[in-house]
């Protein structure tokens, strides 16, 4: 089975459409969405409905911190721009879409695979996995051979060898990476809707469980149109600039 891995869609219709179209060309059999379907972008209703439709056809989906926040009282420590987007997003979603986000699980396990938005170690803490220490903590907590997550908005791959040694790898777009069966892996596909690695092309990955490989992709999309829609919606301009600059 070939599994498309999409995370941090962030209400960016243009990026999501581009990645889904690209995935169809990769002979993908199924999809997994690891959270943050709302926040920052101008099309939360369309993105949430799209994920709902894919879940209805068997896709995996877990809850991200933005999905969690939009269905609960706003935390006082949240900065003003984030609160503004959350409150606006609530006004854009219907009751079915809000219910879908609220009921999403924090984690899903399927066979040897574990799906989580942030870290498998206390998922509700929304820890950023930015190095081998956090990656090892997530892998140990999952007890699964492979963990798929997101949250950091940049593509990365971590490995925990059978002797416990940790390693990391910066994946190259379009290059197949073979995964060894005796090791554990943490796969971060990068963000579909808001990349933050100085590259404004959308990110996603495809896992092939038959030949045990992972391939990361960068998909150019009309980020200018997405940015203009953010501004037209009256959302903070910084979220539009991020799409253009990839930061």
Enter the CATH topology name: Purple Acid Phosphatase, chain A, domain 2
Question: Rg, please?
Answer: 17 Å
Structural class: alpha/beta
Strands ordered across the widest β-sheet: 3-2-1-11-12-9
Total beta-strand segments: 12
Give the fraction of residues assigned to helices: 25-40%
CATH first level: which class?
A: Alpha Beta
Tell me what you see in this structure:
There is one protein chain. This protein is α/β, with parallel strands linked by helices and 247 residues long. It has one domain: Metallo-dependent phosphatases (Purple Acid Phosphatase, chain A, domain 2, 4-Layer Sandwich), CATH 3.60.21. Helices cover 34% and strands 22% of the residues. Strands 3-2-1-11-12-9 form a 6-stranded mixed β-sheet. A 6-stranded mixed β-sheet has the order 4-5-6-10-7-8, with helices on one face. The radius of gyration is 17 Å and the shape is globular. The two termini are 33 Å apart. The model has no long low-confidence stretch (mean pLDDT 96). This is Metallophosphoesterase family protein. Residues 1-209 form the Calcineurin-like phosphoesterase domain. Belongs to the metallophosphoesterase superfamily. YfcE family. It holds the Pfam family Metallophos_2.
Short key terms for the protein model shown above:
globular, 247 residues, six-stranded mixed sheet, single chain, 34% helix, alpha/beta, Purple Acid Phosphatase, chain A, domain 2
Give the arrangement of secondary structure elements.
Elements: E1 2-6, H1 13-24, E2 30-33, H2 44-56, E3 60-61, H3 65-70, H4 80-92, H5 95-103, E4 107-110, E5 113-116, H6 132-142, E6 146-148, E7 155-160, E8 166-169, E9 176-178, E10 184-189, E11 202-208, E12 213-219, H7 223-232, H8 237-245
Parallel strand pairs: 1-2, 2-3, 5-6, 6-10
Antiparallel strand pairs: 1-11, 4-5, 7-8, 7-10, 9-12, 11-12
Helix pairs in contact: 7-8
């Amino acid at each position: 089975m070939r599994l498309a891995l999409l995370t941090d869609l962030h209400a960016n219709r243009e990026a999501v459409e581009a990645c889904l179209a690209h995935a169809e060309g990769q002979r993908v059999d199924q999809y997994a969405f690891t959270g943050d379907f709302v926040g920052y972008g101008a099309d939360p209703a369309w993105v949430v409905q799209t994920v709902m439709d894919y879940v209805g056809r068997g896709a995996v989906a877990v809850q991200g911190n933005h999905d969690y926040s939009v269905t609960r009282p706003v935390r006082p420590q949240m900065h003003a721009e984030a609160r503004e987007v959350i409150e606006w997003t609530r006004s854009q979603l219907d009751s079915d879409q809000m219910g879908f986000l609220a009921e999403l699980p924090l984690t899903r396990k399927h066979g040897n695979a574990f799906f989580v938005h942030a870290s498998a170690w206390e998922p509700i803490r929304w820890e950023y996995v930015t190095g081998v220490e956090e990656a090892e903590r997530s892998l140990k907590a999952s007890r699964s051979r492979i963990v798929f997550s997101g949250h950091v908005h940049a593509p990365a791959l971590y490995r925990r060898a059978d002797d416990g040694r940790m390693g990391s790898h910066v994946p190259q777009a379009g290059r197949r990476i073979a995964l060894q069966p005796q090791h554990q892996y943490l796969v971060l596909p990068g963000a579909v809707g808001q990349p933050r690695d100085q590259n404004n092309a959308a990110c996603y990955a495809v896992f092939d469980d038959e030949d045990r490989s992972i391939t990361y992709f960068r998909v150019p999309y009309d980020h200018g149109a997405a940015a203009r829609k953010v501004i037209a919606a009256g959302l903070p301009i910084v979220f539009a600039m991020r799409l253009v600059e990839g930061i």
